[in-house]
């Protein structure tokens, strides 16, 4: 069976399909199933399926002449996938065994979809593998319950990623100058600012009358640095240091209200 699985993996890998989302997903499922069988039934705790590649290349190289040239790459990709999944497998199987024992103790034959989702979301244990192992022990998985938990997670992620932009507050009128070609620092005054809320945290976008930071545009990544804010109103020369994460050029159409 492992020989057949590695054959199924080998031919798509020669076309670099592992990098494509849909094709890569199918190949990973096949490979992970083989890794799991080797782990459970052969007691293999290290990557070894990649070691079968030279034999298969020798057998099939006459039919697929490009295989020998890509042998090293294929071995590397399969080894990385094996090693990555083996780290997940040990913890996942142990946790799943506990879930199955708990399910039987409760007199049920269907594993909770919520618990299957926890295995997937928290520990990276694939649903199809959970279903396969459960079926080998006479159990099934509440796939509908799993889907419900998945939708809840997606909704939480959307809410967490939502950005709430405040209105621009205009402090002063004036032109904006870039001095970064000649200077790495300058004294600047705030023209306008606004609050940005994301993931329950507040950030601020600030527009100055001059800046040495090159703004993100034309494929150029925006520069970052430090802002030294002097508390002039206190008359004691105190200052605060704030990190400037990334400079950007504000759209000319964005205006705001007077402070």
Q: How many domains?
A: 2
The average pLDDT value, as a whole number, equals: 78
> Roughly what fraction of the amino acids lie in strands?
15-25%
Q: Tell me the number of helical segments per DSSP (H or I, 4 or more residues long).
A: 7
- Percent of residues in helices comes to 40-55%
**What characterizes the major β-sheet?**
5 strands, mixed
Spans of at least 5 consecutive residues with low confidence? 1-5, 16-22, 255-259
Task: Tell me which oligomeric state these chains represent.
Answer: single chain
Q: How far is the first residue's CA from the last residue's CA? A: 72 Å
**How large, in whole angstroms, is the Cα Rg?**
28 Å
Q: SS-based structural class?
A: alpha/beta
Number of β-strand runs = 11
What order do the SSEs take from the amino end to the carboxyl end, as H and E? HHHHEHHEHEEEEEEEEE
Shape type: flat
């Amino acid at each position: 069976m492992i020989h057949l699985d590695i054959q199924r993996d080998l031919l798509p890998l020669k076309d670099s399909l592992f990098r494509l989302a849909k094709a890569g997903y199918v190949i990973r499922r096949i490979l992970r199933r083989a890794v799991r069988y080797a782990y459970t039934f052969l007691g293999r705790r290290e990557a070894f399926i990649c070691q079968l590649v030279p034999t298969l290349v020798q057998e099939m190289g006459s039919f697929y002449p490009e295989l020998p040239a890509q042998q090293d790459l294929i071995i590397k990709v399969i080894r990385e996938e094996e090693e990555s999944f083996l780290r997940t497998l040990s913890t996942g199987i142990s946790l799943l065994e506990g879930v199955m024992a708990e399910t039987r103790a409760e007199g049920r034959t269907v594993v909770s979809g919520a618990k299957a989702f926890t295995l997937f979301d928290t520990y990276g244990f694939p649903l199809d593998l959970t279903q396969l192992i459960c079926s080998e022990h006479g159990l099934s998985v509440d796939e509908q319950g799993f889907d419900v938990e998945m939708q809840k997670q997606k909704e939480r992620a959307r809410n967490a990623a939502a950005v709430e932009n405040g209105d621009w507050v205009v402090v002063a009128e004036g032109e904006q100058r870039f001095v970064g070609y000649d200077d790495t620092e300058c004294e600047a005054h705030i023209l306008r600012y606004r609050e940005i809320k994301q993931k329950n945290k507040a950030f601020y976008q600030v527009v100055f009358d001059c800046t040495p930071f090159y703004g993100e545009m034309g494929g150029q990544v925006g520069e970052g640095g430090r802002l030294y804010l002097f508390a002039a109103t206190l008359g004691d020369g105190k200052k605060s240091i704030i990190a400037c994460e990334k400079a950007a050029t504000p759209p000319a159409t964005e205006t705001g209200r007077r402070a």
